[in-house]
Amino acid sequence: MILVTGGAGFIGANFVLDWFRQSDEAVLNVDKLTYAGNLGTLQSLQGNPKHVFARVDICDRAALDALFAEHKPRAVLHFAAESHVDRSIHGPADFVQTNVVGTFTLLEATRQYWNALPGAEKAAFRFLHVSTDEVFGSLSTTDPQFSETTPYAPNSPYSATKAGSDHLVRAYHHTYGLPVLTTNCSNNYGPYQFPEKLIPLMIANALAGKPLPVYGDGQNVRDWLYVGDHCSAIREVLARGQSGETYNVGGWNEKKNLEVVHTLCDLLDEMRPKAAGSYRDQITYVADRAGHDRRYAIDARKLERELGWKPAETFETGLRKTVLWYLDNHAWVAGVQSGEYQNWVAKHYAA
Predict the structure, then answer these.
(1) Which of the seven top EC classes does this enzyme belong to (predicted)?
(2) Any catalytic annotation for residue 60?
């Protein structure tokens, strides 16, 4: 069995679903079920005895100890995190609690469990920490892409707390010998993403006839990674990654935000045309986000060189799959657009 934290969130749930398509090994899915955790995403696993769900906060040490003792996982995959930059600007305390205190608590519970394992099981155990490229800060248009040795320079409470969690994971390897793996990924997109993020927000607003809010001049650049590719990379790192190493996971798809929105509008014009005009007509520029990093870009050559992984999707193929999924899954989208989500949109895009 493997233990997955945050397995009802966007990337974690995609990983769990993908895991069962590739493997018959059981999953202990640990999630607090905050606003972004959605058991509806995992509906297809209902009744599957190999999917064990536990509603547990990773800050709850006693609950974690009990889960380790009962289920005896061979690996921990740590997805659980507060992950949205805008939310971290308005409420950083939750990010410190989950990303720093939660990771520390999980590491301590894991270390105690790992130390008690017999020799072969102890040697085979892995703790895989899923992180972000945002810990590296912002690039200019001419800077080289982030590599695994790029110095950390986080610029938001979110990225600072993720950087703190990365440092804790590294320290537990070098101080205690805990066999850890860390992945730093670029912007993910795909099915089941909570509609506060750029791509699902634009799709939902476009179909609802609402403005498509673009921060600043829309020229901020991100490297886009299809979530299915991210899941395959994590499986490779878990299976064959070297203990103590960090691996960057990127899609080789640097795109300006405005370019992403234009492409989405064009796909929707093709797949779900309006009675008149284009979805591009709904684009609205809003005040830029505080501390908005200009460019992120991942150099994923180490992962390809050492483990043979590279993304299967281009941005064009991945985005088309994503739009089709949202068009075909109205019920899921409606289910996550709760009152809290509506309040969040009003708060961040009112201007």
Answers:
(1) lyase
(2) no
